[in-house]
Design brief:
Elements: H1 3-18, E1 50-55, E2 58-60, E3 65-73, E4 85-88, E5 91-95, E6 113-120, E7 126-137, E8 143-147, E9 151-156, H2 161-182, H3 189-201, E10 206-211, E11 217-221, E12 226-233, E13 289-294, H4 297-300, H5 306-314, E14 322-327, H6 333-336, E15 344-348, E16 351-352, E17 356-362, H7 370-377, E18 381-389, E19 395-405, H8 406-409, E20 418-423, H9 432-439, E21 442-448, H10 454-468, E22 492-496, E23 519-521, E24 524-527, E25 529-530, E26 533-534, E27 541-545, E28 556-562, E29 569-578, E30 592-598, E31 603-610, H11 611-618, E32 629-630, E33 643-644, E34 648-653, E35 661-669, E36 678-687
Parallel strand pairs: 2-9, 12-18, 13-14, 13-15, 15-20, 20-21
Antiparallel strand pairs: 1-3, 3-6, 4-5, 4-7, 7-8, 7-9, 10-11, 11-12, 16-17, 17-19, 18-19, 21-22, 23-28, 24-27, 25-26, 27-36, 28-35, 29-33, 29-34, 29-36, 30-31, 30-35, 32-33
Helix pairs in contact: 2-3, 5-10
Length: 688
Amino acid sequence: MKNAKQLFFNSRLIIALLSICLLISACKKDEEPTIVEPQVPTVIPPNALGIFNISPSETIVNEEQVFQISFTANPNADIIDESIMIMQGDLEIAQLYDNGNLFIGDEIKGDNVYSASFNYFSDEIGVTPFKVVADVNEQDGSIKKIETALVNLNVYDNISDSEFSDIYNLQDEIIIQLNLLLDGDVNNLSNAYPSLINWVESQSIVENANLISNSNFQIEYTSGLKTKVIISLADENGTSLTRGGIADNNYKDRASSARIATDYQTKGTLLQPKNFKTPIEDYDIGNRNVLIFSAAEDEFYPYIERPLIEEILFEAECGDFEVYTRVNANATIASVLNFSEYGTVVICSHGSNGEDFGTGEIVDTVNINLAYRALFQAEKLTTYKKIVVNPEGIAEDKGLVWAITHNFISDLGEFPNTLLLNNSCESTKTNKLSSAFLGKGVKTYLGYSEIVNSAFCVSTAEDVFKTMVDAFPVNFVNSIDTYDPVDPFAQFQLRGRTDLAYPLYFSNGDFEDGLKGWTVAGDGRVISTLGYIDAYEGDYMGIISTGLGFTTSSGKLSQSFTVLQDQETLNLTWNFLSEEFLRFIGSTFQDELLVIIKTNDEYFDLMVQTIDIVAADYGATTEEAGSLIEVSPGIVFDQGEVYMTGKVESTFDVSQFQDQCVTLIIECSDVGDSIYDTAILLDAISID
């Protein structure tokens, strides 16, 4: 690992945990997420300066913190670099740089993303607005000062450690009171709730307590904080039977057989692939990156859907799915920040009232950090006190975990036309969570109207993925609008688009729509420039690397599609830049560019470019560059002395794959070590 990365990774992660507005880079399966600057601006008006975010976006009054600014400039704006400032009103706070200096959080020099890191505190509770201001060269030769839209820093009062301690102690006492009311008989549970609520409301630190469903309630404290208590029934093995509550006896007279809506009983024919030039549509899932956020597997076992979903995706005949999992304690707040990276997200956890869902992250009741204090007060986080009642009528403590609210989701980055399955209780009971997700680019949100049994969650997940891996749209899923056959008979419901599907046509080969259409592993992103190199087609281009900046994983982009009968040629524009030229020509250090076509059971190498192969083609040696182009100091990575091939246009015959579903894989592979970086620029990819 690179020295700079080792020195600053931990502090960088802490900063990123505080941010709610970051766009995130991809990470390897079963690793904690790596958080970097935005991959591509979401929406930049043509005449605007650019967009920026401040991390964290909440803080505590009179508490000095380190803040990170990331500003993505409009590629069409001719900005004077040394003029870019972050300002609070008329006060200059810090200058922003695009110099690849990890000390200030800037990952890549010359990528049009400017960064600053600074200490700041506010002595006033409320909203503190910031803006980025810069000088821009106009076409008439004049210089004009332009500023971005305001981004607010929310400042909250500081709640004392003793107040937090009182809250946590009360939730422990709730279990004691519940056991007194149960008196060793599970049949006393329904009568215990009113008495338990009355006892909670009688406590001096409580403003009020409200029953949300028949078994879950929310506590509002005099401090303004809110927490929830989630009570479930367990079987004789200790398995929590539901995902956030207990069945209401008022439903006992309802039929227990599942009902399938008539509109969804029959499957139609597979949709025909579209031509390449059609841009990615709202009904296309944006990538095949899949996140399974399984926060309570230890409680739900054996009713867990994660292994089943993984098996279905790994065995899919068409579609190179990259599956990432966050299980139990690894299902953290930080990993929720990464949700907007994925074309498919599955939440397997406790939930409540369509407002929030639980993580697997245990609340540190001794040292709650500033970031979580602010998010707690902003009602972006709450806590779940998880309690199960066993068949002997004993209430057991299953821990105090952080829970994510709809307000947290509303501050995430833009999702890539995502399919989201929320396998938690009451996930569609209200529209708060679904509206938050849909407002950020999730196109289809699936959930449950009531408290739901884990066994039904597993069966619906199986139905969803077995249907959709065959490229059928979501309204072909049989279980939509059906009911859990076990009390309280939750209905499986859909919010958003009914026609969302995994596409089987090639799209976005010029990266003008960010990374939509592309499945990313490791360091893959979209930029508008790299140093003095502009995109070869349009405003944006792709870049994969052996791990630039804080990212240490080599990059891969892939896309699955059907090669049509009249398509014969794959076109690709690329540029190979590396610090391994010239020094490591002829050595074992051979970073490489791979272009591969994968069918169901075979891999076909269309192109392999290593350091030695490129050097031979360009007449380069350890002493002479030949026709390679030296681009440093204008472009530097970790070590400097970067050479590049320049723009190369390649074509490949793909006629042998006509009428087949294939996966195009473009990979930058690190061979030897990660000390010297390589990056590949990609653009103008098409199938003709």
